[in-house]
Design goal:
Order of helices and strands: HHEHEEHHEHEEEHEHEHHHHHHH
Radius of gyration: 32 Å
Helix content: 40-55%
Shape: elongated
Number of strands: 9
Distance between the termini: 29 Å
Number of helices: 15
Largest sheet: 6 strands, mixed, barrel
Strand order of the largest sheet: 2-3-7-4-6-5
Strand content: 15-25%
Structural class: alpha+beta
């Protein structure tokens, strides 16, 4: 169908500027629409993939992927850890003590979720060491007053490393809470909403404060497949006594993940409409080119060009416009995806504002990750739309009769 001369003529029509002003304007408009649609779609999908990556790697790298609790406390965590590690999908396990309390400094108070951790085991189940100076977690065990707090808590209390605060822990069944003076040894800055609530202590210190020395609240699990965590918890719970409870990240952060996926799908659908609108402009362009080139079409027909040849010429022209628009949009979208994070940070610095706040969004900056599979989907879809919308104008061109077209020439 696509003979050599059909390809040459279609390419010439596609890049030629010897059309009417209106045809040239609509042609540029349809190309610009494709460029904008492809670039924006790649950019937005990259941002959504960035949010997805931050949730999976940073937030769920710090917070437990799965946990096993006891209704009261666990007196012998070592044996339970050894038992849990025998599960084929459990990569690592470590005990923790979880407390709810308040941190007070001068007249400022902030609620806090305290995790008592074993610094020597935390490397196997958590990415916490990546966000802290080397040796910070091991140093928690050297002082019973050491504590690490999130940057959001530090900013709320207006404290910094080395300051002392009062830790207030309510005790169940006791009208008077426990109060302990703690000293900040480091500030945790993950750029996520975790920084607003999380504080870290040594596991033995946290157990003493809780009133159950030597006991832990639960066991944190790291699994080989993040999305298999609920099934792993169900399998483990089936083998444990009924006083044990299990939970996975799907319960704590699942809604955030699903909202990100839903937003990605909805925004992608809306931006695909931009490409579709640009494709309809391409239809208008090709139809006007057909009208503008009726004489040329008639001459080609009289010279022996077949109906298929005429169709091929205009399908090549439509495909060329789609290829140019998609290619430029691809380059622009990938470029924007790589610079959007530092660009937004620069704008925030210049304007003195922060667009993403951790009390509203799960992270405090605009992430971006280019996933080539999504880029390929966008490019293939844009090219296919450009190809198929060229069929009708090409068919109309092939139906032009030489005698009718040349009658008034």
């Amino acid at each position: 169908m696509f003979s050599h001369y059909a390809f040459l003529v279609g390419t010439r029509y596609g890049i030629s500027r010897r059309h009417s002003h209106l045809v040239s304007f609509i042609s540029r408009l349809s190309t610009a629409g494709l460029i904008i649609g492809v670039a924006l779609l790649i950019l937005v999908m990259s941002i959504m993939n960035g949010f997805d990556k931050e949730l999976r790697e940073n937030i769920l790298g710090v917070m437990p992927q799965a946990t096993i609790y006891h209704q009261r406390s666990i007196a012998d965590p070592a044996s339970l850890v050894a038992e849990l590690k025998r599960h084929p999908h459990v990569v690592a396990a470590s005990p923790f003590v979880q407390l709810q309390g308040l941190l007070s400094h001068q007249k400022r108070v902030s609620p806090v979720n305290i995790f008592g951790i074993d610094g020597t085991q935390e490397y196997t189940t958590s990415k916490l060491p990546e966000f802290l100076p080397a040796g910070t977690l091991e140093g928690l065990a050297k002082s019973h007053s050491a504590i690490v707090i999130g940057r959001g808590i530090a900013e709320k209390l207006q404290v910094t490393q080395g300051d002392s605060m009062s830790l207030i822990i309510p005790i169940e069944g006791n009208s008077s809470p426990r109060i302990k003076v703690v000293e900040i040894t480091a500030i945790l800055d993950t750029h996520t909403d975790i920084d607003n609530v999380l504080a870290l202590m040594d596991i033995n210190t946290a157990a003493d404060v809780s009133g159950y020395p030597g006991h832990v609240t639960g066991i944190r699990l790291k699994v080989d497949d993040l999305f298999a965590a609920p099934a792993v918890v169900r399998d483990i719970m089936a083998t444990l006594p009924p006083e044990y409870l299990g939970s996975s990240w799907m319960r704590t952060h699942g809604p955030i993940y699903h909202s990100i996926q839903m937003s990605k799908n909805m925004v992608g659908m809306l931006l695909f409409l931009i490409i579709a609108i640009a494709a309809f402009n391409l239809v208008s362009t090709l139809i006007m080119v057909v009208v503008d080139k009726q004489g040329d079409i008639a001459i080609l027909r009289t010279m022996g060009a077949s109906t298929a040849d005429i169709m091929a010429i205009f399908m090549v022209q439509g495909g060329l416009i789609g290829l140019i628009g998609t290619s430029i949009g691809l380059l622009l979208g990938i470029t924007l995806s790589h610079i959007v994070t530092p660009l937004v940070q620069w704008i925030e610095k210049i304007l003195g504002v922060q667009f993403l706040h951790s009390d509203v969004y799960p992270i405090t900056y605009l992430p971006s990750e280019v996933v080539m599979a999504d880029v390929a989907k966008v490019v293939v879809t844009a090219l296919l739309i450009s190809f198929f919308v060229s069929l009708y104008p090409a068919w109309r061109a092939s139906k032009i009769q030489p005698a009718d077209a040349l009658r008034y020439e």
